[in-house]
Amino acid sequence: MTNPLFYAKILLFGEYGIIEDSQGLTLPYSFYKGALKFSSLDSEFEKKSNTHLTKYADYLLDLELPKGFELDVQKFQYEISEGLFFDSNIPQGYGVGSSGALVAAIFERYSITKYNPENISKDQLKNLKKVFGLMESYFHGRSSGIDPLICYMNLPILIENKESVDKVAIPESEEGKGAIFLIDSGMTGETGPMVQIFFEKMKTEGFRKTLKEEFIRYNNACIEAFLKKDMNPFFRNLKKLSNWAYEHFRPMIPESIFNVWKKGLDSNAYYLKLCGSGGGGYILGFTKDYEKAEKMLDGFHKEVIYRF
Hints:
Helices cover 45% and strands 18% of the residues. The protein has helices spanning 44-61, 73-81, 98-110, 122-140, 146-153, 191-201, 205-228, 231-248, 255-267, 290-296, and strands spanning 6-13, 24-38, 84-88, 157-159, 165-167, 179-184, 271-274, 282-287, 302-307. α1 (44-61) packs antiparallel against α2 and α7 packs antiparallel against α8 (231-248). The longest helix is centred in the C-terminal third of the chain and has 24 residues, at 205-228. The radius of gyration is 19 Å and the shape is globular. The model has no long low-confidence stretch (mean pLDDT 93). It comes from Chryseobacterium defluvii.
């Protein structure tokens, strides 16, 4: 059996906003990956994974998927009984798509109609996103389908709005002083409770208004400037976005990160934003001078994902 690898993903922009029709920009992240494999299930990890797959197969058995996107669940169940497990180093609860990679791997192996990610049309992308949303809802209660889509396509994806997504080219990473990096908050976050907090906030008119008029405007402007590699407007809007999140997404910012988030805003040395739903896991950092930011963030585990 060949084991296609499915990489983690990073949502650079669009967290929560994409629920309300903002744009989003996501990248595959090859540092973390997962693949379906067979074993005699000797280790605790393999046993646990196999048990999870058994429960997930029961869910998929009752799931009605659109025509052309059906899964051979019987084959999946048979292979689970033969020792199938998901071998992954993608951390769970870190906002980098652990369930997305699993869903992508299962679809790739068990979809009755086979697709080639390189030749997928925009319409098929839209349908795949829906299918992946249904498949991933098992893990989060509600899913846009974006995470598995990025893991499956293994390409940067521009989320144009709720309905429409497209493949996109991002500027080449180069060895400059600037960087986009991940900071480990040291704790895991759960998507469900964080999304619940967001929907509670959406019940107040003031929050809805500022989300639409400010957050979405800054978010979309960041994406536009980043894709053009126009770094001055990029950092200008990024500061506004980071400041907005500091004020309005406070419950989603892990306690360990709270003070350094403010320190970045006050010093302009770096700006932080949520990576996924927040509550824990990774936080995204952006800086024009990584050496300086690294010193200021001493004590935190960091990983550079893009240089400019």
